[in-house]
Amino acid sequence: MSNLQFGSDFLHATRRHFLGQTGLSVGAMALSTLLNRAKADSAIESKLGLPNLPHFAPKAKRVIFLTQSGGPSQIELFDHKPGLEKLAGTELPESVRQGQRLTTMTSAQKQLIKPAATKFELCGRSGATVGEWLPHLKTVVDEVCFIKSMYTDQINHAPAMTQFLTGSQIPGRPSLGAWASYGLGSENSNLPDYLVLLSKMQRPSDQPLYDHYWGSGYLPSRYQGVKLRNAKDPVLYLRDPEGLPRELRRGMLDGLATLNEMHFAHMGDPEIATRILQYEMAYRMQASVPELTDLRDEREEVFELYGPDSRRPGSYAANCILARRLIERGVRFVQLFHPDWDHHSRLTSWCTARCRDTDQPSAALIKDLKRRGLLDDTLVIWGGEFGRGVAGQGKWDSPEAGRDHHPRCFTMWMAGGGTKSGHTYGETDDFSYNVAKDGVHVHDLHATILHLMGIDHARFTFRHQGLDFKLTGVEPSKIVKGILA
After folding, report:
1. Is the peptide bond before 54 cis (omega within 30 degrees of 0)?
2. Which of 28, 249, 315, 449 sits at 20 to 30 Å (Cα–Cα) from 9?
3. Running DSSP on this structure, what letter comes out for residue 298?
4. CA 88 to CA 92: how far, in whole Å?
5. What angle (nearest 5°) sits at the alpha carbon of residue 404, between those of residues 403 and 408?
6. Contacts of 120 (CB under 8 A, 6+ apart)
7. Is 35 inside a domain boundary?
8. How far apart are the C-alpha atoms of 62 and 46, rounded to whole Å?
9. Residue 198 is inside which H or E element, if any?
10. What CATH number has the domain bearing residue 343?
């Protein structure tokens, strides 16, 4: 303890100061391993993830997660229940509801059955059922694997979306994308491993998208999702001020890194290492992001494929093009968020508007990836945090009627990345109220996504506060083998 000062300073030394001073050897070892930032190929620049991963050969090398925030209605879009027409306006049988929880928005009203507001069609060679509000998805159903038996534990948006993306309803756990970044890294050292794109809506959205949805939780913060703004400048302050030469900027960062390295050697705080990494990443992004987000090199037929909204910066369609450009550049995990699927009222106008926003671009993304030879090893995921209930919210037969939240069953779809194409997995009951066959919990979904990326979810852990945490939690989780190609 030669570095400690005795006398009054010693008497007033805090526990943190003591540990910081006596841990210099540990800090020095970590510094020599992690912080040789002068070399571009040093460990600090490595984007290859953990040395023992993947556990086995992956089917999906990258993921694009098309997150539909708010709870799309499976009853209108995917889960065809023709028998509901004869039961329109009658009360949902207690034998079906079984006392299951309702939100306060509908718990006081009668649960009167509202049939689907759409007509369905058997599509493609697979004969998948798709509602009329998704005409473009109908053209790619033979590339898609539908999971109609998803279920979750949460009935309100924030805890449901938090569980949907982190495995726990309580904020503070790492997101799926952060786990992928931590374990696998990416092949591009000029862009983050995990990027998040938010749709710029035509009208202000009243549905918040919280940062912890793409946060790193107890993982080092370098693994959190980096959000690109849905504006002209996707990243603020990326351009150097007028008159500041690039070499001067480099010198400033070198000096700042030296100070941070000294501080790291003194304190041993891994977040200091993250800070250095992020400064370096920001420097490289000054060159990589403007080129990435400049769509002028895209051919006219690409914009025609993704639809009329694809030229509007920040739109869901434009973000789908950016997602494809990102995975072409080696980014591991790209997540799009499109809000306002929360149709408690005006179902036929509210839900159709969200379908117009997303249907053509989502289908175009699948077509675009396939023709570029990227779909086989890119996993595309589409879905929200829960579904909608069979009872009408409000007056069931009114144009103003909607549907309430429903966690007991909902539909998602996946494409590429080792999933079965042209396949439908799982079934619900005649009311689209309960899972009837092959239920898939959110934890099962996470275990399966990790499996497709070459990771055994049971062995993929992070030590935190004396415990080995994992994305799928402590309850038993299964890989959904029925959707694997």
Report:
1. yes
2. 28
3. S
4. 10
5. 110
6. 80, 82, 129, 130, 131, 132
7. no
8. 17
9. strand 194-198
10. 3.40.720.10
Q: Write the DSSP symbol of residue 202.
A: S
Alpha-carbon span 13 to 286, nearest angstrom: 43
For 60, counting Cβ atoms within 10 Å of its Cβ (0-12 exposed, 13-18 middle, 19+ buried), the class is buried
Which string of DSSP letters, residue by residue, matches 337-396? EE-----SS-HHHHHHHHHHHHHHHHHHHHHHHHHTT-GGGEEEEEE-S-EEEEEEESST
Domain residues for the domain of 59 are 51-244+299-483
Say how many residues make up the chain. 485
Please state, in angstroms and as integers, the Cα–Cα distance from residue 7 to each residue in 1, 2, 11, 145, 373, following that order: 14, 13, 7, 70, 70
Residue 385 buriedness (CB in 10 A; 0-12 / 13-18 / 19+): buried
The number of domains in the chain is 1
Q: Are 480 and 425 in contact (CB under 8 A)?
A: yes
| Within-domain flag for 256 | no
Pairing of strands 194-198, 402-406: unpaired
List per-residue pLDDT tens for the chain, 485 residues long: 444 444 444 444 555 555 555 544 444 444 444 444 333 333 344 467 899 999 999 999 999 999 999 999 999 999 999 999 999 999 999 999 999 999 999 999 999 999 999 999 999 999 999 999 999 999 999 999 999 999 999 999 999 999 999 999 999 999 999 999 999 998 888 899 999 999 998 777 778 999 999 999 999 999 999 999 887 677 766 676 777 777 777 777 778 778 888 888 888 787 787 777 777 777 677 778 888 888 999 999 999 999 999 999 999 999 999 999 999 999 999 999 999 999 999 999 999 999 999 999 999 999 999 999 999 999 999 999 999 999 999 999 999 999 999 999 999 999 999 999 999 999 999 999 999 999 999 999 999 999 999 999 999 999 999 999 999 999 899 999 999 99
Q: 387-393 and 194-198: which strand pairing?
A: unpaired
pTM score, two decimals? 0.87
**What is the DSSP code string of 303-320?**
HHHH-GGGGSTTSHHHHH
